[in-house]
User: What shape does this take?
Amino acid sequence: MGTTQPRTDPDMDAAFGNTRIAFVGGGNMARALVAGLLRQGATAARIGIGEPDAAQRAALERDFGLIASAENAAAVTGAQCVVLAVKPQEMAHVAKDLAPRIAAGTLLLSVAAGITVGDLARWYPVAAVVRAMPNRPALLGAGVTGLYAPNGSDAAARSLADAVMSAAGRTVWVQREADLDTVTAVSGSGPAYFFLLAEQMAAAGVALGLDPDAAQLLAAETLYGAGQLAHADPALDHQRSAVTSKGGTTEAALARFAAGGFDTLVRAAVEAAARRSAELARQFGSGN
Assistant: This one.
């Protein structure tokens, strides 16, 4: 990601007011959210990051003008919102040191796949817990995030969670926590599916005689353009129909996809990803 300069206009800061937001972990997703928050008008002075890697801390401070700490406890002190942006396998270990520092009523916003609300509530009993599943396009502010909060959650906590995640793209609330496994499978892992399809399209073009660089550019730009069209009008069946003329080339290709069981294969792939998300919860959550 490129450097993002913090905005200091007090009117632009109104979206977050005096809220202090802390990130535990300074990797790609934290960087995406910080960049989005600054674009939305949050001030760097109200954002803290705990990151053990010295080089990453230096890059965060240079790129965003904020203070990054080697100690999570220092980063979260006084924060009304703490974003847990560490890997699932690190969550239980982080919680042991961090939990005593979380004040009652703090919004705990987890972006770790598979770690359940039950585990988070057990590790952080005084926090208001919301789970989020963003995806990699958040790095460009073009992400989409699935959000879940348990029944009875404070409306203010839900609103703040939505505002934080909206900084990197659109948000969708789900009714059941198990739905986040499906969100993970559809949108969290989803960009890789589209990249794989584009790779295969480029490879097919090369097999039919195109220059490799030309084939890759054609596939990549087609992927980008199709995404732009879907963003403007997310009625996917309508978008597909608009490209498909009766008896034409697109219809011939789609018929081959159908004959090869494309729909069954895609469903099986998404189901496999959803199962793996649930497995992560069992592996790194309960009992740790």
Summary: The beta strands are 21-24, 47-50, 67-69, 81-84, 107-110, 128-133, 143-148, 169-173. The radius of gyration is 21 Å.
